[in-house]
Write a structure and sequence with these properties.
This protein is of the alpha+beta class and about 400 residues long. It contains three helices and 17 strands. The strands form three sheets. It has an eight-stranded antiparallel β-barrel.
Length: about 400
């Protein structure tokens, strides 16, 4: 047998072995990838132009953390171009939220390795799973998210990894617009770009560019296109057709909201004035507590003789909980403007259970403890109150 034949067969065997290894590692059987460089440059240029415009708009508006130069003070305020209510999503966004969407869509796509990395990575192609889905928000709105999952045996592998595809949306008169895709919610400027590395599976929220000339409504029907930018892939393009969001199809839409800092503010009974409840929701992680959230309630009410009487208490709950219980107490033995002894007496009054059906509604029930002294107001019941104020930078919508 000629050496050339042996050598050719050895190369073929090595190629098959390499292919088998690649398949075992989660790589696709797509032939050697070829980057559509012209399209890649076009995509990145459009997105960079949109991002530059967003930064300029942010500077002009005085958005916190934007560079100075505008005429407005740099303070926190709600992003008017946000694609979803700010109270809808928390960071980090966990993997697997698509399982709560009865209309979630998925597809297998072959994503390019880093074409500029050289070596095996430049030739790498990996088959990943993409999910397109919605998360229920308040006020009949939703957020649209995209999750890209790597094969479990390649998760976190920084030697061989895929890169992000180009993602565009068509909606109404807007055709194939390359969208802002952020892996951190509630931001003005953050975005990702095609050919950025994807070392670990990630979730991205589909956003609008701040101050952009194109503002998409992700609650309405749209067509989303995934472009792997690989001219050698016969399945280069994957299309998702997403219908108009219908809250009636989602069980979570009829449930109370997860309690968060967005519920902080003052609440009152719209049927009468002069009484109110102040709510504060905060973090406990820094204290070493195993329960990450707390809620504080101050109820400014009256006793049976019409004299102002306030009840104050706190409770803890876990992130994601939709209700919380507070132990209310009252104080005695004090005096006006600190004109009293070194301490006052604090006594448990009863319990207070609260939940928030939407951003502007608070439902609560209360129950006084038995055996309270004469003169202490008592009772039980359930009420529905409305929001009076919100916290700057924490606008719940």
């Amino acid at each position: 047998m000629k050496y050339s034949t042996i050598f050719s067969r050895s190369i073929a065997a090595a190629a098959l072995a390499a292919a088998a290894i690649a398949q075992a590692a989660g790589a696709s059987a797509v032939t050697t990838p070829r980057l559509d460089l012209a399209r890649a440059q076009q995509v990145r240029a459009q997105m960079q132009a949109q991002a530059s415009q967003a930064i300029a708009s942010a500077q002009k508006s005085g958005v916190a953390s934007a560079k100075p130069g505008g005429t407005k003070p740099a303070e926190l305020f709600a992003n008017p171009d946000r694609a979803y209510p700010p109270s809808c999503l928390n960071s980090p966004m966990p993997l697997g939220m698509w399982q709560n969407d009865p209309n979630a869509q998925s597809a297998q796509v072959n994503l390019l390795g880093d074409p500029y990395a050289g070596g095996s990575e430049a030739r790498y192609v990996e088959q990943d799973t993409i999910y397109l889905f919605r998360v229920v928000c308040t006020s009949g709105l939703s957020a649209t998210l995209l999750e890209i999952d790597r094969p479990s045996n390649m998760e976190g592998n920084s030697n061989l990894y895929p890169t992000l595809p180009a993602v565009s949306v068509t909606q109404g008169g807007v055709q194939n617009f390359y969208i802002r895709m952020a892996d951190d919610p509630n931001t003005f400027l953050s975005t990702t770009y095609a050919i950025n590395p994807l070392v670990s599976s990630d979730v991205f929220v589909l956003e609008n560019f701040y101050g952009g000339s194109v503002q998409l409504n992700y609650n309405q029907a749209l067509t989303l296109t995934i472009d792997t930018l690989n001219t050698a892939d016969p399945n280069r393009y994957t299309t998702f057709n997403l219908g108009t969001y219908n809250p009636a199809q989602y069980a979570q839409a009829s449930q109370a909201l997860p309690i968060s800092g967005y519920m902080t503010g003052n609440w009152y009974d719209s049927n009468h004035s002069g009484e109110g409840i102040q709510v504060e929701v905060g973090e406990l992680q820094g204290s070493g507590s195993t329960v990450p959230r707390y809620i504080v309630v101050a109820w400014y009410t009256y006793d049976s003789s019409g004299v102002p009487y306030w009840l104050f208490g706190s409770g803890t709950f876990n992130a994601g909980d939709t209700s919380a219980q507070v132990t209310l107490g009252y104080s005695s033995g004090g005096g006006f403007a600190g004109n009293f002894g070194p301490s006052v007496t604090q006594t448990v009054w009863g319990t207070f259970n609260v939940q928030f059906p939407d951003c502007n509604t608070m439902q609560f029930s209360y129950q006084s403890a038995s055996g309270l002294p004469a003169g202490v107001p008592t009772g039980s019941g359930a009420k529905i109150w409305k929001r009076l104020t919100q916290i700057n930078g924490l606008t719940c919508q």
